[in-house]
Structure formats: C-alpha cells, structure tokens
Design a protein that fits this description.
- The chain is an all-beta fold.
- It is 0% helix and 46% strand.
- The chain has strands spanning 23-32, 43-48, 54-57, 63-70, 72-80, 87-94, 99-101, 104-106.
- The strands form two sheets. Strands 1, 4, 7 and 8 form a four-stranded mixed sheet that branches. A four-stranded antiparallel sheet has the order 3-2-5-6, with no helix packed on it.
- A hairpin with a 6-residue loop joins strand 5 and strand 6.
- It is rod-shaped.
Amino acid sequence: LLVVDPGLRTEADVDLTPAQVTVGNILGRVVRFEDNGPVKGAKVTLFAGPSSPLQTTTDSQGAYAFNNLRAGTGYGLRVEKTGFARATRQPITLNEGQTVTADFVLRRTSD
C-alpha cells in the first residue's frame, strides 16, 4: 500500500510483471477392458489435491482433461460409469508446466 499526500512528490520502485503461475494438466482416456473401445460419458472426478474437487465427462473418444491445475502433490482421480467397475488412481504428483497422462481401463460389471 502506497499512500501519497496531495501536493507531495513520491517515487517508488514497483515490479508490475505478472506473478509466475505454477500450473499443469491431467488428461487421459477411458477404455473398455474387453475391446479397448472408448467409454463415452464416464464421470471423471478429481477428488483430491490442490485444485480439487473438479468433475468432467469423457467425450466420444473416451478422452477427458483437467487443465490449468495448480502444481502439487496428492491428486486423486476416480472414474465411474453405470455398468462398469469404478476405478481410482492416487497419488498423482503434478509439477509446474507438466501434463500427466492418466488412462483408465474399465471392466464391465455383472449387473
């Protein structure tokens, strides 16, 4: 905070460059165990870590992405889709500028 009284001349050295943002990405693909085909519409939840909780859904190719996450440790992912067994991966460490690929293979349930 810089306070200047009216009529006085004040000088200050101020660095106005943007602060460095430490972010990374976690992305991957969700496929079926039986034939390696994509699992469309699977719910992917980022349930632990500095940027959690977040949620997304896989696209028609089974792909998902969480972008611009804060770098850090302890990230956890969970994938769920009706008719398939739930899958979890933890811990995931995300370093500054890194893209971590976390693919999942889901097995059908007997239900």
